[in-house]
Amino acid sequence: MRIVSLISLSFAAATLLAGCNGYPPPLDPNTLDQTNWKATSPYDAREFVEFKLVKTNNSLGLYGHGGCHRLAGVMQITGNRISLATPLVDRPIKNCERGREFMVKRYINAIKQGLIFDSGAFYTSDGSVMFIEQKKSVSAN
């Protein structure tokens, strides 16, 4: 009888803890309005992908650059995920330095696939690419 009570108590505690540690709360466009994000990378910072999120109704405008590319798009929010509501405008503005185009495209493709917000950063679904908030304003130039 005592073992059954301990098992029941353990199950109840596990259920309660699972409810407390569920998914992160849904994103609020108001909290992301006017925030600036940059890609993390062990490589040269000159080619980082940076973008700014600007609230537009219930979605977010994305404006920024990826070293040699200008970026613009509209992101929709679903839970703790942002994904493109319109195709991403990815316009080359100059030639990338040799070897850097691959890295820049990797981050741009991550934006195109959609990003998950968790612990104050944006990740791809496999966690391989991450964007962190930065204080300096991002220019689309």
Low-confidence stretches: 4-21
Query: What would you report as the Rg, rounded to the nearest angstrom?
Result: 20 Å
Strand order of the largest sheet: 1-2-3-4-5-7-8-9
Given helix and strand content, the structural type is alpha+beta
Oligomer: single chain
Number of strands: 9
Overall spatial form:
globular
What's the helical proportion of residues? 25-40%
Mean pLDDT: 78
Strand proportion, as a percent range, falls in 35-45%
Give the N-terminus to C-terminus distance in angstroms: 71 Å
**Main sheet summary:** 8 strands, antiparallel, barrel
Counting DSSP H or I runs of 4 or more residues, the number of helices is: 3
Secondary-structure element order, N to C = HHEEEEEEHEEE
Q: What key phrases describe this protein's structure?
A:
141 residues; alpha+beta; 9 strands; 26% helix
What does this molecule look like?
- By secondary structure, this protein is an alpha+beta fold.
- The chain is 26% helix and 36% strand.
- The protein contains three helices and nine strands; from the N terminus they run ααββββββαβββ.
- The chain has helices spanning 2-20, 29-32, 101-113, and strands spanning 35-39, 49-56, 59-66, 69-78, 81-84, 89-92, 115-118, 121-123, 130-134.
- Strands 1-2-3-4-5-7-8-9 form an eight-stranded antiparallel β-barrel.
- Strand 3 and strand 4 form a beta hairpin.
- The longest helix is centred in the N-terminal third of the chain and has 19 residues, at 2-20.
- The termini are far apart.
- Residues 4-21 have low confidence and may be disordered.
